[in-house]
Amino acid sequence: MHAQGLTKRFGQVVAVNKVNLEVPRACVYGFLGPNGSGKSTTIRMLCGLLTPSEGDIEVLGLHIPEQAEELKQHIGYMTQKFSLFDDLSVRQNLEFLATVQGLSRHDEKPRVDDLLKRYRLDDREDQLAGTLSGGQKQRLALAGAIVHRPELLFLDEPTSAVDPESRRDFWEKLFELADEGTTILVSTHYMDEAERCHRLAILDNGNLVADGTPAELTKKLDGRTFLVRAGTPRKAKEALDGQTDVLSVAQIGNELRVLMREGNASIDALRHRLGEAGAQADVEGVPPNLEDVFVVATRKHADKQEQPA
């Protein structure tokens, strides 16, 4: 799948701005960004539900949106809101979706039986879907999205309403699908989920601000992240906030995570600066993480936007 110059305008509002994407097959590809960053709009354009204002899209060898109807046979789509039928049983939901997706009667029963077992719903097949727990609804929705064995699966913030254990279990299911050859596009605003993806795109205000594997993205920030332990963390934070070479200071418990603008800061220099402000502290370098990548990418884009033309 690839997209070139993908743009969507709603009146004067640019929701997605000239985004270029290249998604390998059998890859779990993540869209990371806050609400309103353009993740859902991008996904809807890629699967043919929304017509782009500009740009070229090719998905599974098909040109979108011109061949969107043909594409529907080869993709699955799951949103953050449970969208199956509450007043049908678990099995009835899957049987209905199998029929809609064109499975023959011969293939329908073994496929539904397999999905019920695979997603641990076989003991609840006669239970009304509306009475399931959040995690169970999520597994049912995923089973419904892949009942026709799609080559490509779109997931729009699918874990936003479930507990951490259900989220972990859900991601295990995604990797099983990827191992079987399914390409998966998943949007999220959880950093821990983004770290799980094979590749990742970070969106901010409709702009693609970073793209690569989590390891590639974090490696670019080597030497720029530090942990500060101080008896008075608020005082230490005040000493670093607003410094021209400091990009961000985040308090995590009694510690501070410091992200520098460039990778030439030394531990001794930071310690000395804190000492001069009366905040004696221990400073050590720590590996960068995706939250650091997100801060750098979005701040850099904001700085560019503020520069005079």
Automatic annotation (TrEMBL):
InterPro entries: AAA+_ATPase (IPR003593), ABC_transporter-like_ATP-bd (IPR003439), ABC_transporter-like_CS (IPR017871), ABC_transporter_ATP-binding (IPR050763), P-loop_NTPase (IPR027417). GO terms for molecular function: ATP binding; ATP hydrolysis activity. Keywords: ATP-binding, Nodulation, Nucleotide-binding, Transport. The keyword Transcription regulation does not apply. SUPFAM superfamilies: P-loop containing nucleoside triphosphate hydrolases. Residues 1-230 form the ABC transporter domain. Belongs to the ABC transporter superfamily. This is ABC transporter ATP-binding protein. It comes from Dyella jiangningensis.
